[in-house]
Amino acid sequence: MEAMTANNQTPTKVLPALEAVNMSKRFGSLVALDRVNLTIKPGTVHALLGENGAGKSTLVKCIMGFYQPTEGEVVIDGRSRQIDSPRDAHKYGVGMVYQHFTSVPAMTVAENLVLSRYDNTKLINWKRESEHLSEFMAASPFKVPLDVPVAQLAAGQKQKLEILKQIYLQSRILILDEPTSVLTPQEADEVLGLLREEVTAGNLSILLISHKFREVMAFCDEVTVLRKGKLAGTGLVKDLNISDLAEMMMGEQRELEQIEKTATSTDKTVLEIKNICANQDNGLPAVKGLNLKVNSGEIVGIAGISGNGQKELVEVLSGQRSATSGSILVNGETYRATREEMFRHQVFSLPEEPLHNACAPNMSVAENMALRTFDRPPQSQRGFLNLTAIRQAAKSLIQTFSVHTPSPETPIANLSGGNIQRAVLARELSSDKTQLLIAANPCFGLDFGAVDFIHRSIIEARNRGVAVLLVSEDLDELLKLGDRIFAISEGKLVYESTTAEADINTIGQRMAGH
Predict the structure, then answer these.
(1) C-beta of residue 487 within 8 angstroms of C-beta of residue 510
(2) I need a surface site. Which of 29, 135, 229, 353 has the fewest CB within 10 A?
(3) pLDDT tens digits, residue range 443-478?
(4) Which of 173, 235, 252 is closest to 49 using CA atoms?
(5) Total domain count for the chain?
């Protein structure tokens, strides 16, 4: 959109205002969104907060045309607009950057930019396109090499490309869904800082969906908070603090609780990894001669950008992938992650994406909670399952770990992400004999309440003398929970420090391969 200046010669951009007015969305008897109002003012960064299931995704999908609202309307520049698809949203200058990458890995950056266009071009003049793309990249806030296949880009560059695609499409309102989840702290601040400059310059307006209060306080002008499908509060960021945001999200005044780390004996080595190597699925090396020790009563964190070998390392430790060389010792004994060895050494895990990696989705909550114990008394007697004992154990865990489920018989796939993680956490930490806990991105995509609960549970396990290996892409999480921290890059450990002496800038540089 353009308007003429006073001399009617130089066109200047006019940013559209976006409103969701009395927006409601029902799925049968479920009210996912209940008369929510949201206003994104031109030239601002507006944060959208809420727990999982609060209605954030539903609201955004109604704005983008993925869903048709049951009630309410999308108003752009003071006029109600019918938006039936993202193509319609694009027509009014609204674009969205999704949490997961949408670029084609085998194609170059230039090819992905051209592919993103909403046109019916059948023949591409690459000489002319290359000239236009070079001019576009030169004027863009981010610089990504045009002739490089996306598969060869680092995670930070891939995320910049996702944002560049929307700028290339001349979107004036960007909806960003957790845009920093795969970035190092430096990359996150760089991306949000450059976008902030574009907003300040009057080139963009942004709706930022985030779980990170620090990002909201540092980069946003206004905030809207949803709770259970309803508007819980809104206001100027400069007039609010983190406690205010938490109170709106949770429905009660609540500070971020700190769990005291008690002094523990850490002279017993529980987990020892010796020169472990492992390959990716395509046969290329992923873990390259990694050595690490984790002692009882300590949390050892491994920081890294996704795709640097930590996934394969965790799979080796959990028995889901074979090492190509090296050895693993638990309590001084060779460990191959068999069921018998897991039970003997009391090794438990809290994996990333628990519904896919730690659950049988169509089985009940009670059955999933029994996966560790169903073949042992009292849940198994003379070769037969004791369903009553399984159900009673599940009811106790559901209450202790505050798992919100209609009943123990509910399929676990029907639960929210946070409650699935709570159910897995209940199963993995219910034993008072746990010696080793392996946690991989345990809070990825979860809301404030679930994150706080999981952090408390991990620290309480550490205080009981459990050895904890915590692999996470969230550096703040590692610095909060860990006793020692490592950084991994290209399958090797490239940094080591106590968390008390850790240098955030150095960690970020090592994570990025510098």
Answers:
(1) yes
(2) 29
(3) 876 667 778 888 998 999 999 999 999 999 888 889
(4) 235
(5) 2
